[in-house]
Design goal:
Radius of gyration: 27 Å
CATH superfamily of the largest domain: Zn peptidases
Strand order of the largest sheet: 1-6-2-5
CATH class of the largest domain: Alpha Beta
Strand content: 15-25%
Shape: globular
Helix content: 25-40%
CATH architecture of the largest domain: 3-Layer(aba) Sandwich
Order of helices and strands: HHHHHEEHEEEHHEHEEEEEEEEH
Structural class: alpha/beta
CATH topology of the largest domain: Aminopeptidase
Number of helices: 10
Length: 369
């Protein structure tokens, strides 16, 4: 996202090569991961910013040189601000997921941001991470504090999502599989277990991480991967070895929770069905074919599937620590019955009397619509 924070770009290129090579070698773990998972990799969201930073190189690169795109815009402050809408909606018991975008949102975002929003809207993504540099920590939502007084770098405003425990687990999966992130002390700063709630670190508005959670079914975290935003070439192998297992382990985390199909009585998939988990005030929706996937920690849950025009269905299911539980829903269509027609009373209308009560339009004066 930030053109001068280049390690993530190099790691994702190396990850792509690693997955292909290990698949060809018959690595059972990687083969299973590729067969069971749709993996999308975007090495760079800000190629223009990268070119600016790369021209200066790692030795003379300024701390902010190349951070923004060609229009001078920070792309991680450029997504529609759904947090403010969510905080207001929460007060009036409004929707907690797939919050509608403002009418004029396309005119307020950069081309890169628009392309990414269209991309993440085209697939029913479940889990993602965006990669940064300048610190070493796994950051999870919310990034934006509800209290706008706290905008400086102060660790005082923890702002958890309804899925806070799950997000902490996702962040710890990366930090403890990383070479040293989990130790906490990095870059002159300390984060317990190598993780932090975003707003607890500092409040950030219009970021990609919160946008994903509030607009799509995708659970995203932010990975800060190096103290040096533009590390020298000789440091890349060491960084790759520190992140390789963490990257693979994080991708594997997509296979936890519940998954299945929402269909009607004729086994036709129902798109846009809402999957609600009792006790967690954040819903997800089914995809175009009625398929859904809801990340959950191990435990027993009461889950409801609902869709307009259908009777909701509720089940209780147990999620284990290994593979996702398969939970299908088959919804019965609501039958709308017309009320019985009233019989004519037989009372005759006195047309002359009725005419006296009706004022001809031409005689009305002084009225406006």
């Amino acid at each position: 996202m930030h053109g001068n924070e280049v390690l993530g770009r190099e790691l994702l290129l190396q990850l792509s090569e690693f997955l292909c090579e290990e698949y060809r070698r018959g690595n059972e773990r990687i083969t299973r991961l590729i067969h069971d998972t749709r993996i999308h990799i975007m090495p760079s969201m800000n190629p223009d910013g990268y070119e600016v930073a790369a021209k200066q190189g790692p030795d003379s690169n300024g701390y902010l040189t190349g951070r923004n795109n060609a229009n001078g815009v920070d792309l991680n402050r450029n997504f529609p601000d759904l947090n403010t809408l969510m905080y207001y909606s929460r007060e009036i018991s409004g929707p907690n997921h797939h919050i509608p975008l403002p009418d004029n949102w396309k005119s307020q975002v950069e081309p890169e941001t628009l392309a990414v929003i269209q991309w993440i809207s085209s697939y029913n993504f479940v889990l993602s991470a965006n990669l940064h540099g300048g610190a070493v920590v796994a950051n999870y939502p919310y990034d934006k504090s509800q209290d706008q007084r706290f905008r400086s770098h102060r660790r005082t405003v923890n702002t958890p999502t309804p899925d806070d425990k799950l997000f902490q687990k996702l962040a710890k999966t990366y930090s403890y599989a990383h070479g040293w992130m989990h130790r906490g002390w990095n870059c002159g700063d300390y984060f317990a277990d190598g993780i932090t709630n975003g707003a607890s670190w500092y409040s950030l508005s219009k970021g990609m991480q919160d946008f994903n959670y509030l607009y799509t079914n995708c659970f995203e975290i932010t990975l800060e991967l190096s103290c040096n935003k533009f590390p020298p070439e000789e440091d890349l192998e060491r960084q790759w070895m520190a992140n390789r297992e963490a990257l693979v382990a994080f991708i594997e985390e997509v296979h936890q929770g519940i998954k299945g199909l929402v269909s009607d009585e004729n086994n036709n998939g129902i798109a846009g069905a809402v999957i609600s988990v009792q006790g967690i005030s954040h819903d997800i929706t089914s995809g175009d074919m009625g398929d859904y996937f809801r990340l959950l920690l191990p435990g027993t849950y009461t889950v409801t599937a609902s869709a307009e025009g259908y009777h909701p269905q509720t089940v209780t299911t147990t999620v284990g620590p290994a593979a996702p539980s398969l939970v299908h829903f088959q919804l019965k269509q609501e039958v709308v019955r017309k009320p019985p027609e009233r019989k004519a009373s037989g009372t005759r209308v006195n047309n002359k009397a009725l005419q006296k009560k009706v004022v001809p339009r031409a005689t009305r004066r002084g009225t406006q619509r």
